[in-house]
Structures are given as C-alpha cells and as structure tokens.
What does this fold into?
Amino acid sequence: MKALRLALMGFGNVGQAFGKMLLEKQEEIQDRYDTEVKITAIATATKGNLYNPEGIDIAKAIEDAEKNGSFNGPDLTELGGIELLEEAEYDCLMELSPLDIFTGQPATDHLMIAISRGKHAITANKGPVAWYFRDLKYLAEEKNVGFYYETVVMDGTPVFNLVEHTLKMAKVTEIRGILNSTTNFILEEMEKGCDMDDIMARGRQMGFIEADPAMDIEGYDAAGKVTALLNVLMDAGIRPDQVKRKGIEDITMDDIRAAASRGNVIKLLCKGSLDEEGNVIAEVGPQEIPRTDMLASVNSTTSIVSITTDLMKTVSIVEHEPEIEQTAYGVFGDMLRVLER
Amino acid sequence: MKALRLALMGFGNVGQAFGKMLLEKQEEIQDRYDTEVKITAIATATKGNLYNPEGIDIAKAIEDAEKNGSFNGPDLTELGGIELLEEAEYDCLMELSPLDIFTGQPATDHLMIAISRGKHAITANKGPVAWYFRDLKYLAEEKNVGFYYETVVMDGTPVFNLVEHTLKMAKVTEIRGILNSTTNFILEEMEKGCDMDDIMARGRQMGFIEADPAMDIEGYDAAGKVTALLNVLMDAGIRPDQVKRKGIEDITMDDIRAAASRGNVIKLLCKGSLDEEGNVIAEVGPQEIPRTDMLASVNSTTSIVSITTDLMKTVSIVEHEPEIEQTAYGVFGDMLRVLER
It folds into this structure.
C-alpha cells in the first residue's frame, strides 16, 4: 500500500475535525485509493509541534488538543513551524493557520515553501487565494504539484470544483453571492426589529460574531471571498484592496424599514462582472433584494453563490447552515484530489 | 488528430441546439482534446435519416431541419434508426428521442444496442435512467464504455456530476427537490389568484404546458425525475411506479388560500429518504412550504435539488429559468466526459 504524508499548519477546530474525519474514513480511503494517509507533522501556535516521519498518533493528538490544549508524548518536537515545512518529511501541506485578510500571510509563505519543495498544497485560508493566487498557481504548475483551496469559499460546498469539474468549457461571465454570515445574521435580526446591542450579544454567544466584528461588518471578509472567487473562476488577477467595498456599518433601522416598505430586504451582496473592456469588476455592498428573490431567503449562516456562464446561464449553489465538519470536508475533499493524482 | 464519431437518435430542438454548440466550440474542443467531433448518423421520426461515416455537414442538417423540417442531400439514407444503431460507424450514441415515461422505451433499447456494440452512450431521456438504470450501468461496465445522463434531471445543471465529482466519498442520505416546471408555474399563478383556464392557456403559449398536461399535473414527470435521482445517487433500484405519487390535480384555490393564511405556499415536492431498514422511500406530492423557505422562492421554470450527505450536510443546486441551450449543454458536457476517457 502507498502512503500520503500530510503536514498540518494549525490544529484548531478545523484541523481536529479533519483528523476525526480522516480516522473515520481511513479504511474506505485505503480500499478506494490503496493509500494510507498519515499525518507526519503538526505545527501550532499554542499547542506545541509534533513530528514523526512514520506518522503521528492522530487520535492522541486530537485528545490532547481537546483535553489539555497542548500536545505531549514522544512526537513532541523542538522544530518550529517553518523548520518543519522546510525539513520535515511530508508529501502535502495542509495550511490551516489563522487568516490575515490584509496580507494573506504567513499562510502564503507556508504554501510557497511547501510547493517550492515539490509538495502538494491545500489551504483552507482565503488570504493566499485572494492575495497571491497567480503566484501560487504558476509555482504549483512549474513544480508539477497540486494546489487546492475548495474550502476558501463556502467551506466544503463545491464552488471551484463545481466550475472546473461539472461546468467544463463554460466561461464564467458573472458571479453574485451572499458569503458573509455575520452581516447576514445582523441584517436578518434588524429586519425582525431587534436592538443592535442585543443582536451583537447573541451573535457572539452563537459564535459567529467575532470579538472585533469590523472584519465582517465593514465587508473585508466578503471582499476576500469575492476576490478568491474571481481570481480562480474569472482569472481576475486582483487583490482584495481592489474590490469596491462597502460594509453594513451605515445601515440603519430606517433603511431596513424603507426597503421593507418596497417589498425588499437588504443583503450584503458580493458581485463580480465584466466591464466593456473585459476587465473584471469586483464589488461588495449592501443591496436591496425583492423579498420573493431566492437571495432574500438566504438567512443566518446559509450562503449562496450564483455563477453565470456562456453555456449554462445561471446556476446557484447553496450551503445550508454549515458546521465545522463542513469546513473539514473541504480540506478532506482536496486531499482526495491529491490522492487521485 | 483523433476523431469522436457521434450517432444522434432524434434531432429536435435539443439536437439542433447541441449541433450549434458543437459548431461554435469545435475549435476549442480540438485544441483541448486533440479530437475532432463528427456526427456520422442522425435518425429522426419525421425528418428522414442521415448517414456519412466521414461526418455529416452539421450546419446543413440544422438548416434543413429548421427551414424545411426534413433532411436532403447526399447523406440521406434508407437505413432506419435501428439499422443505423446496429450497423453504422460511430463511437458514441446520443439518445435524444421522445420520452415515454411509462416504459422508458424505445430509448432504453437504443442505448442497449449501442452499449452492446461497445459504444459509449449519452441520454437526455429520463425514461432509461428511471426504468433500467442498473441494467444499463452494468452493461456499460461490462463493455467498458461510458454511460452518461446528466441532462435527465435539471438539464445541464450538474446534479449527478455534482455528487460524483465534487462530493467525493460523501454518502447521500436524503434528496428533496422541485423539478417540474409546469406544476410550479400553475401553483404560482394560482397563488396570484389567476383563473385556471387562463393559466393553462398562457402556459401552453409559453411552451411549457403540453397539449395533454396530465403527465406533469399528475406528477408522472416528477416521479420519473426523482426515480432517476434516487437510482443514481442512492442506488435505489426502483421504478417510477414505485414512487408514492400525488399530483396537483386536486389542489383548489381554497387550499392555496388556506396555506397562504398560514404563511405558506404549496409546491410539488420530490423527495427521497431512507427508512429504518435503509430502503429508499420515494415520494412526489404537494406540500406546504413556509414562504420564507428557499424552496418557496423557486418559481416559474427555475428548479432546485437539495442533497443531504453524511459529510457535507445539505447542499442545494439551482437552475434558473433554463432555455433549450441549457439542455444542449447537458449532452455537450456528457460528450466532454467521453472525450476525457
């Protein structure tokens, strides 16, 4: 039996959920791909780092992370994250480190190091795809390795794979989507007439409003996602700071009520389209949507992307109220693509 | 350069739209697959049959069909449809003959003949996938040829390919959908308070209410589609007559108003799920849906399938108001799969 050796940068909720999925499906993977998937390295900011070229005990790593918040045992290593990336034995990097939407770093550097070493690379981090997509893509092509990023937009829900594998030869001409849960939740609750302080408190309690919600509310997260979509699906070659971005910070209850009086709701819409010269125009901003429109029914943590192509008009794909397992499935599915190479 | 030779059974709207798409994309196909796609045989019920092992003039066939409703010229043949299937030179059958939802014939026989000869087979006809899926699948496996049917549900919108190519290793546990445009249009118009005679007249004018609308209104079309979905995606091994089927023929304006008073709309829902023993249960019937639910926003000729799996919860895919080109893209995409083999 062959082996695929993974190095994980980051081992938070997604990494742990991925580890569980891998353990659960290990046998089926072996049957299907005649390959055993091992994790040989895990680097984290707060739990310590693990390294074992023969394969880390995944169940133990998950248990230690959950119970103690830190690793222990014989696989603990003094090697730092970058050292592991540069020196450890692995076939594929799985980049799960925290996002910096303003720079795409250090995730991009991690991917560059791995790909430069001829390793496949998977990222769940939208920063690199938003900021450095072409660089990463060209480097991966040059090194003849896989570079996968399905999780970057809508978790494991196929968006990039949808176009690449099921809409072959169709040329994308427009993309519209609702891609930020936090703003979607806030707008929906405002619609119900809830008080803003109360909305923020409940959103924090439910775990999808961050301590500092500006990233979401001012549209930076949505801008990162639409940039990733447009870079991959429309070869836009743009950065998040080139998106015409407006958040929902100025939306008032009066705006919501005025929209309602017109039979509309307000949603934070992501959009990419072509101008007359064929350049891709990227926008994020609040927009009034008729209440009967499908987009108006996208509530809470549900998200949607509508993709218009020359051959298939508009096809939409919807992710319904995902949990952490759906993010884990995104990188799991990318790993299956590596196995198929 | 290699060649792929197609035999078309049927050359109505879909066949002609496919022909145009093929002509438009011929060059790109040659660049991408190093293969020239030819049509060597076309059999029709009313236009005559064409055969040329070197390739029929596709543009002329389309023009003759559009202008004269019949073929002419040197490629006209006395060979009948079955004779062409049995004797003509081709690599792949494209089955576009009219549907008989009660038997799946003669389309299934056409496919059987071609596959038995070791030819790839593509069908846009849901009958064979609803009635004889396993037989066709096993025969194609035995003969080591491709058997493709993406168009059977929601035209070229990926449904089967979505699961096979983008939700790998995810096990489908439930399917829900709105898949019949005619009933969807009628219910929507009733909702607006329109008179039934008027609805039927306009539906006929718009081309999506048949002269005899019973197939749609009594749920046979939807039952055929849900059977196809369940046979492929849940290995159900069922026939359309095993679907628990109820149409919208008994829905009255009072029902619609009563639903509205509860904040609901009535939709003809297709559903497949597992019972406690793991058997697939297939149902088609009118159901009340909350007006705020995404399914309630699926109007007119738009359709939706929601697929629930063990690993990715629920993902929905939506086709927005398709035209004939979207059906043509379904078989075009299947042809690209053949080219990739």
